[in-house]
Amino acid sequence: MEALTGSCLQIPCNFRVKQGKEFNSTTTTFGVWIKNYPQFGRNPNNVIFNSSGTVSTYPMNFTGDLSQKNCTTLFSSLKTTYTDTYYFRVENEAFRATAACDPLQITVKDSPPKPRIEISGDVKEKESVSISCSASTPCPHSPPQLTWNLQPDSHHTMEENTDGTFTTRIQKSITLSHEHDGFIITCSARYPVNEEKDVKTSEERKTLSVSYAPKNTSVSISPSGRVSAGSRVNLTCSSRAKPPVSRFTWFKTSRDAPIKVSEGDFYSFNVTDEGVYYCVVTNQLGNQTSSEIHLTIEGGVDHLLLGAVLGGIIGIIVLIGLVVFVWRLKSPHPTAHQSQVRTHQTTRCGFVIIWNQAASTITSCLLHLFFYVESACWRDSDNRRRRRPLWRD
Fold first, then answer.
1. Which CATH class is domain 116-207?
2. pTM for the whole structure
């Protein structure tokens, strides 16, 4: 057993009597502790404690009921010089026996043992695991105080082990995510010593290694921007996953369904037409799709500009039509009065004709403007293409 200087050690102990031997539980029973060598007849100084009161060299006390064959002992105010091999002896009238074949090795240290961090469960994202920090408790009368960075003021429990020793424990259940990967759990154990006047501390750390499906998947293109038809383009797919990505798959969108075009994190090809590309990455725990990347060929029509111009033209035409329609609705119906009314009607008809001619003229001008902008876009693209060198290094 291991113990800490300035603290105590509870020694779990019980004995049984060999068959044929008689043990009288109704009479007074004494317990004896012997160090170093069980045959104390020649070395009486090896007897360091006797519950009869005759010897109390070491600060010991039987806490168990010897008459019930329970020899549990509390060893207090420990020093490193108490490190030794010990033997238990029982004395009950005519029955006297020493456990010479069952020695107890006690080691007293100045530094406390490190706590133990344990994780139970499948350590991968979306799984619930139980994480515990435990510390050996050689002196259950002054147990260690455990603290960790998972939860402040955690509830402590002290458990008795199958061998009669004790363990102090704190525990927490968490549902893992990829963000927990690489998280360092720190647990400290503070042992009170010297009648709780001082404290000795030990610490343990453990790094979480959480498996997760691909995250942060993205695509990059080189060269960026518009490219010339026939030039070479490189697409790169990157992702973060644990275990690492096992498969990269490239797709090109189409009207019917995406078309698989390549595999691997790097996709290089000669440009023949414009298109939209993306990659799908996969590992043992799942997959993730990247955002789309648009490949535009230099010299193509600027569809956004044309769309804006066309939309503006249509809007103006509709507006003119509405003005004419509203004006006609508000104009009075023709009457049967003679020339003055007809003159007035003729004037209004002339005004309608003027409006119609104006609308036609405006529409014609706008259409000319549309074709002018379109041709300007094409000319600008041609100029840029002519300015580019024919060959690249």
1. mainly beta
2. 0.69
The pLDDT tens digits of the residues spanning 94-114 come to: 889 999 999 999 999 999 999
- Whole-number pLDDT of residue 281: 98
H or E element: which one contains 241?
strand 232-242
Separation of alpha carbons 23 and 90, rounded Å: 10
Q: What is the pLDDT of residue 380?
A: 42
Neighbours of 309 (CB within 10 A): 19
* CATH T-level assignment (fold) for domain 214-295: Immunoglobulin-like (2.60.40)
What is 2-109's CATH topology? Immunoglobulin-like (2.60.40)
pLDDT single digits (tens) 379-393:
444 444 433 332 333
CA-based torsion, 296, 298, 303, 304: positive or negative: positive
Q: Long-range pairs for 222-228 at CB < 8 Å and ≥24 separation? A: 225/296, 226/296, 226/297, 226/298, 226/300, 227/271, 227/295, 227/296, 227/297, 227/298, 228/271, 228/297, 228/298, 228/299, 228/385, 228/388
